[in-house]
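User: Can you write out an input/output pair for a complex, sequences first and structure second?

Assistant: Here is one pair. Inputs:
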Amino acid sequence: MLYINCPHCGIRSQIEFSYGGDASVKRPELNKEVSDQEWDDFVYNRKSLRGKHLELWQHISGCRQWIKIERDTATHEIFRTFKADEEVA
Amino acid sequence: MTQAFRIDNGGLVNREKKLSFKFNGKTYFGCEGDTLASALLANGVHLVGRSFKYHRPRGFFGVGVDEPYAVVQLYRNGETEPNIKATEQELFEGLEAKSVNCWPSVNFDIGAINNFLKIFLPAGFYYKTFMWPKSFWYRIYEPFIRKAAGLGVASTKHDKERYEHKYEYCDLLIAGSGPSGLASAYAAAKNGAKIILAEDKPRFGGSLLTSDVNIGNQSGKDWAEGIIAELKTMPNVVVKNRSQIFGYYDHNMLVMSEKVSDHLPSTKKYHPNKRLWYIRAKEVLISSGSIERPIVFGNNDTPGVMLSSAAKEYLKVYGVLVGRKPLVFTNNDSGYETAIEFKKYGVNPIVLDTRKNPESEIIDEAKNLGIKIKNSYVVVAAKGYKKVKSADIASISEDKKQLGKIENIQCDCICVSGFWTPTIHLASQSGNKTKFKEEIDAFVPGQSKQNEITLGAANGVFSLDETLKTSFKAGSELSKKITKKNNEVAIPNVVEKKSSQHDKFWCVPLPKGKNYKRFLDFQNDVAVSDVEIALREGYRSIEHVKRYTTLGMATDQGKTSNLNGLQLVSEIENKIVPAVGHTTFRPPYTPVSIGAIVGREVGKHSKPTRKSPMHSWHEKNNAVFVDAGVWLRPRYYKRGNENLFEGSKREAKNVRTNVGVCDVTTLGKIDIKGPDAAELLNRVYTNAWLKLPVGKARYGVMLREDGIVMDDGTTTRISENHYHMTTTTAQAANVLSHLEYYLQLVWPELNVNVVSTTEQWAGAAIAGPKSRDLLQKLFPNSDVSNEGLPFMGYMEGDLFGVKARIFRISFSGELAYEVNVESDYGNFMWEKIIEVGKEFNIQPYGTEALSTLRIEMGHVAGSELDGRTIPFDNALEGLVSKKKDFIGKRSLQRSAFIAEDRQRIVGVVPLDKQTSIPEGSHLVKDDKAPLPNPKLGHISASCWSVEYDNPFSLAILKDGKNMIGQKLFAMSPLKNKVIPVEIVSSHYVDPKGERVRS
């Protein structure tokens, strides 16, 4: 079970969080023409990476904030956690 | 029966306290402090089971968690539990156990015929034999194999025992209370670190309980007792016996199973049977020790052959002689320690040492005691069927290939020692890449992966002096890092005998013309010949060899067999052992009760149960409840002998003719506030929201980004920047997360706050032609006329002094209202509605009537919004704005979603107007068509229309738009029904929607 450092609450166990997928996906802007390919990439197409992965989690049983976690998908090592609006360097 | 093999003094059991127990129906006596194994051995019982494959007689091989054979079925307090190691089960008064894997009895087992058929049962036999014909597998092969195999029978009864889970956090977690665990725990405790020290056995001390050493001026055992006593007084230390750390998981979380009650005749009141600890430790010290490994020889599975360390522990801890004529077979000095203990109690052992001229203090001591030693000698084969009677022994050449002349010597047990294997399971589970240590022929932990360090014998260090030094140091340094304290602890002097180098010998060659089974894995009956076959047939990876032969599998996980298996593969493949590698160590280290893993979350407790504030009223009024997600909702209110069908029909009918009231507290409610609230709703829902006036409600549908309907419900504008959203009961949590996702990540510029208020409001739906009359009486000061409170209108009112929200919304399709009050007043509101409603013949109605009402109106619910449908499918395309953008809109252009013959909701009526159509039935054109009969659609919901008094269903049907009037068949193979049906409009009752506006 992962031990996640919520940038708002501090270190908490994984059971307080729910997973939210790839954090690098950007939703196309509203009212903008979007090609089928762009839309499919946004809705469906995901890479199944081995290694460092930036992903979204929500602290559902805590502060309810969506956060970003940089995690190794093979070893589960967590490198850093970010607030939703924090720039990932 | 007397305990003939119990010595008069020595050991740690209480001879004053006799305990009676039953094994295979026969009564025996043991002592307090015994295990089932030691008590049986004290009574001279060596035959405890039959082996897995050949059903050969099995005795005791080990003394604890290492035991591969002595697995029994336990009966305790009216319950039965399989897969219990007799070597771990502590004796209690009245214990009952039976052998497993034998029929009709352990003494006469029919399955033993396999032993004579063993040439037909080599490795891979099952894979090769039970392949054809294919159809035989389910009916003949599998049931037969299942019956013949297995290690006990799981109880089919509900487990009455209670199991607990506990979450704990500590600075240092120490696995094992041997010399290493005690030393590191003590040093760290002195620095004030928060410590958990776990020992899987009932007694603390590990090897110090049996080894002949002195620490300081005390015996090892006394030193251990002193340390434990002091640790127990320290507030920063938790000391746990009978507690096995069985898994090392990510981010330094370990799981420990504590046996709270297994050693007692029955579980004490308010105590659990077992407690599972989830421990998050800053640092983990693995002091799990080592397990002696066997030397492989002919018939080495005969009862009476056991590890020499086990024989020593039975003697020193339990005061039990495993035999009176012991033969010790060893390749190192450990065998001599066992021989010396035998000698001390007046028994004359013979030692066979594979080494030519070993010299050490221990060997000298044995010689001085007059123990008979034969160097360069091996056991070729054990003789005897149900018990060792003698041994064939021979001298062995220096290259260990040639056997001398075979002699037979009398003995009643063979104590075997093939040196020691560090217990590296936890370290390996943590991700530590193990390395092979040539000097000890075994793997030890390598570079630490998580915050773990392995010490003592588990790290391949077999000198007590070095173990204590490194462990004191590790405990002190790791705790210092955390607590910043540095209280020096003096390291005691150690007096231990020096030992000599072991012999890298592990398997006795077969004598010419003999074909003895030489077992590597005792639990799974894997012999040397089986591994040879696997390699001959081309299996190379050790993981494949393991799976083909079952070497190292099952409940003992190869604790005594792994390394000898690797030695064999390396020898045949002519590779060094580290090149062969070992199989992966996976948790659990030892079997864990399923009950302990599940904990308290069983049956009704597997999920929380949510009840509305009106629940007790429902109970008092004969409500029959149904699970709606985690909520309990009244399904119908039973009157007299009514069944569900009759009761729900009555309730629904009363809504259509008079007035009914339904508890709708369970609906999800989300409070939305902020200047951009309308903009958020406009993006979330498919329809337009910017122009909704204050005091009005609107029905909305929200999609996922993939265009599938996520949820529906009404949202009301309470004031300028304040909205009240309702969701379906099931989707409440998901919708909140959905809104938070967009507000926090996608559109953070929107100034809106959302919060769940589901539990803050109690809701009652008042529906039926007389609902307005009732409402007027409930709110005499409010104008609830059709003009004052029109359809989709909202107002606040005063309900006998309680502030209420009144919404004119309808799910039933009748003239209807929903009244919300703060939850604390829910029951008050409900009782007032019932009381005032009497004169209008009000009846409460449950979810079944609610469904009937919405189905015959063609209103969609969860069974249509099933995660596979888009707005069009639910006849909701009128709510999809063409002008503005919203979540999921782009997906609605997908070709499948705009196909001409797209599926769509329809109504379905059976032609005979009598036969109810089972939900889930498939709609087909031709009921006689060959299978697979093309499916055109499925029945999503069924009811008995109270309006027309005949069955009516909703269906999602391909090209539903153009199917009205068609005759099809509803087929339900599950219910064995074929029903001719007609497709009609989904709006079966009041298609123009006049009633809700009346």
